[in-house]
Amino acid sequence: MKVSAVQFEPIILEKEKNLKKIVEYSTKTDSDLIVFPELCTSGYYLSDEELKILSEPFNGETVNIIQSISTAQNKIIIFGFPEVDRNNYYNSAAILFPDNKFSKVYRKTHLFYKEKFLFTPGNSGFFNIHYPEFDLNLGTMICYDWRFPEAARTLALAGSDLIVMPSNLVTKIWHRSMPARALDNRIFLLVANRIGSETRDDEHLEFTGKSGIWDYNGGEITIASATEESVITTEINLKETRNKDINETNNIFKDRIIKFYNLT
Questions:
Q1: Residues tagged active-site
Q2: Predicted TM-score (pTM) of this structure
Q3: Where are the domains of the chain?
Q4: Reduced to 3 DSSP states, what percent helix, strand and coil does the chain have, rounded to the nearest 5?
Q5: Tens digit of pLDDT for each residue in 126-152?
């Protein structure tokens, strides 16, 4: 299966320009699965009023446009957008499959910094989607979810072969954890981060780029630059993740001693 992460700089408040970029890359990128950054339709550092203006329902115009490309070109497309649902505003990822009956929305579980004052905490939980046509088990996280090993482990235990993570990362330490998340769970991991910067009042955010794809042993397959718009692509064999044995007697899931884990 060929997978890609698209790294670019969403322009804050410019939904039409951002959508044009997403459509362009969705159409021309020759991959089975394409992932875009977090909140890539709107930009990141929004006010309450801007969020209300830019947010759309999951069945809204933007999702419908990208869904039509997914269906027509037989591609899975994942992108971040601000979602409104019954007066709640979520930091969400649309997960769109060619057969739209599999398409779902993931709502960010762990809100970062001032997101807590803007978005409603996600209520979707972490879930795996099995897509029979590609024999793919797909899990989704968003950005700050990376800080919590339980998130990736939950998806792996649910059967995910590949975890994708639309992101607007500003830290410079997240690359230390990605190999561990992949290795601990024997899954492929793909992060689509953004580049550029945003300023509001006296606060300036620099996004760190370096979108990446890691293999199920924690090995770095490909990494983008810190500052350039780019697409990174690789071929992965999903079935390689499904054997959790590490030798003749040990299996990373079967060897868990759950009665000794206190995670509350």
A1: 38, 108, 143
A2: 0.98
A3: 2-260
A4: 30, 30, 40
A5: 999 999 999 999 999 999 999 999 999
